[in-house]
Design brief:
Elements (H helix, E strand, L loop, with lengths): L17 H9 L1 H10 L5 H15 L4 H6 L2 H9 L8 H19 L5 H4 L4 H9 L6 H13 L24 H24 L1
Helix pairs in contact: 1-2, 1-3, 2-3, 2-6, 5-6, 8-9
Length: 195
């Protein structure tokens, strides 16, 4: 008798570490923490953060992280090499994210999308997460649709029409994505100077 198999988790090539890339696809909380950290540091460093955090803590359990003494978690973020250039602020943000995942989703971050009723509901759930704003939500929607195979009514209508991490499926695509993003930011700065 044949049994149904779960599709293999995607490998998300957002870091220079193959093991961290596998971890991002296997652990939904790792993906969300990577997005929370993806601010004022490289994509590679941000998305390697969850893998390194698990190594330092010995787990990536949202309930245990949420229950940690904030000073203890900050000390973990500050260990060399620091998980972020702003370890104090990011430790607080990750802890807040873990608290929401624990309180609202029973510690299972994948429930954010597996229990969403449609694209609008998924977008609303993602926007309610600490440190996840509209631009990050656009990228997450694209990743969930393109890389995880999430299909919900109305989700396609909410997918971004610009390049996001959801388009990155190889190390070369990541380099191209980063170059496009830098060029876009340079264009915005040039337009701001003209105004």
């Amino acid at each position: 008798m044949a049994t149904a198999t779960r599709p293999a988790a995607p490998v998300l090539p957002f870091t220079d570490d193959p093991d961290a890339n596998v971890f991002l696809g296997e652990n939904p909380l790792a993906l969300l923490i990577g997005y929370a950290l993806d601010q004022q540091i490289t994509v590679q460093h941000a998305f390697h953060g969850p893998y390194e955090l698990r190594r330092r803590l010995g787990h990536l359990d949202p309930a245990r992280i949420a229950a940690m003494d904030p000073a203890e978690l900050e000390a973990v973020f500050r260990q060399r090499m620091a998980l972020h250039r702003y370890p104090s602020a990011m430790a607080k943000r990750v802890q807040a994210l873990c608290q929401v995942v624990t309180d609202q989703y029973g510690g299972d971050a994948s429930r954010i999308w597996t229990e969403a009723s449609d694209g609008a509901d998924l977008e609303k759930r993602l926007l309610a997460l600490p440190s996840i704003g509209p631009m990050k939500v656009a990228g997450l929607l694209a990743i969930l649709y393109r890389r995880f195979g999430v299909r919900l009514p109305g989700l396609e209508d909410r997918l971004p029409t610009w390049p996001t991490l959801g388009d990155v499926d190889t190390p070369e695509a990541l380099i191209e994505y980063q170059a496009t993003k830098r060029a876009y930011k340079a264009q915005l700065r040039a337009e701001a100077r003209k105004a």
